[in-house]
């Protein structure tokens, strides 16, 4: 997926972001911070990486969300001494040793590294979509949509939320979901004998139980009702096995 790299400057940049995002901006001292912005009702607006940079914070976001996110951040800016602009940088990704100036992806150790350069990257030979599906990593516009709650999408497992940092927009709903006994719905990995199709309904005992979201061959990420999944799942006439993503 195409990415836009924004540059946030100004002396209030860390304080400004801290009150808006789900993760602790102070973690930038250790590398990349994966985080999100939510509505006051706790639903997903955008997910992105914050990147430490000299006298700035870079923001690495899916291109489809960049204009909207810039507008929303500007709306919250008020009197904060903050500027938001395109950086002109390009995302580079890879596996193996993290290169100089690069950062390990905080979502999962097998998601490799990310770096930000002045020129675009050539093909890296990695099937990132298949890898993230295998690892249970949701994607912007696929699993992560305006109807998503980030805890159902695995943000705690993916190091994308901090429950000790204090208030941010949507924090109250997120904290309440955290302290429920158990989430009744959420992201799961499913598999079948034959390849599945994105958007296919999953049923259990004739009742709707979920939806196939991203597909890599016979494996997929799905949004499931866990209370119905134990009775056996079917999609497109096939039996599905499923695994909750802890």
Outline of this structure?
The chain is α+β, with helices and mostly antiparallel strands. The protein has helices at 13-18, 63-77, 128-135, 171-178, 226-229, and strands at 3-9, 33-38, 44-53, 56-62, 83-86, 90-94, 103-104, 113-117, 185-191, 201-204, 207-216, 219-225, 233-235, 238-244. It has two domains: 3-178, Gyrase A, domain 2 (2-Layer Sandwich), CATH 3.30.1360.120; 185-244, Elongation Factor Tu (Ef-tu), domain 3 (Beta Barrel).
Explain this structure.
Strand 3 (44-53) and strand 4 (56-62) form a beta hairpin. The model has no long low-confidence stretch (mean pLDDT 95). This protein is of the alpha+beta class and 246 residues long. The chain contains five helices and 14 strands. The chain has two domains: 3-178, Gyrase A, domain 2, CATH 3.30.1360; 185-244, Elongation Factor Tu (Ef-tu), domain 3. The strands form three sheets. A six-stranded antiparallel β-sheet has the order 10-11-12-9-14-13. Strands 2-3-4-1-5 form a five-stranded antiparallel β-sheet, with helices on one face. It has a three-stranded antiparallel β-sheet with strand order 6-8-7, with no helix packed on it.
């Amino acid at each position: 997926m195409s990415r836009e790299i924004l540059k946030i400057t100004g002396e209030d940049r860390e304080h400004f972001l801290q009150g808006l995002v789900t993760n602790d901006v102070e973690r930038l001292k250790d590398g990349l911070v994966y985080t999100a912005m939510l509505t006051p009702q706790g639903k997903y607006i955008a997910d992105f990486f914050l990147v430490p940079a000299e006298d700035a914070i870079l923001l690495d976001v899916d291109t489809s969300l960049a204009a909207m996110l810039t507008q929303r951040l500007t709306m919250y800016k008020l009197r904060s001494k903050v500027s938001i602009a395109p950086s002109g940088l390009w995302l580079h990704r890879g596996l193996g040793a993290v290169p100089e100036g690069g950062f390990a992806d905080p979502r999962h150790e097998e998601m490799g590294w990310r770096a930000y350069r002045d020129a675009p990257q050539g093909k890296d030979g990695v099937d990132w979509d298949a890898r993230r599906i295998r690892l249970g990593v949701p994607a912007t516009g696929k699993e992560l949509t305006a109807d998503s709650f980030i805890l159902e999408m695995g943000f705690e497992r993916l190091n994308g939320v901090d429950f000790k940092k204090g208030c941010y927009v949507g924090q109250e709903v997120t904290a309440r979901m955290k302290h429920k006994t158990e989430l009744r719905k959420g992201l799961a990995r499913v598999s079948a004998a034959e390849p599945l199709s994105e958007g296919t309904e999953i049923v259990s005992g004739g009742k709707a139980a979920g939806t196939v979201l991203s597909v890599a061959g016979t494996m997929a990420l799905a949004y499931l009702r866990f209370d119905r999944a134990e009775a056996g799942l079917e999609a497109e006439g096939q039996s599905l096995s499923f695994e909750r993503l802890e």
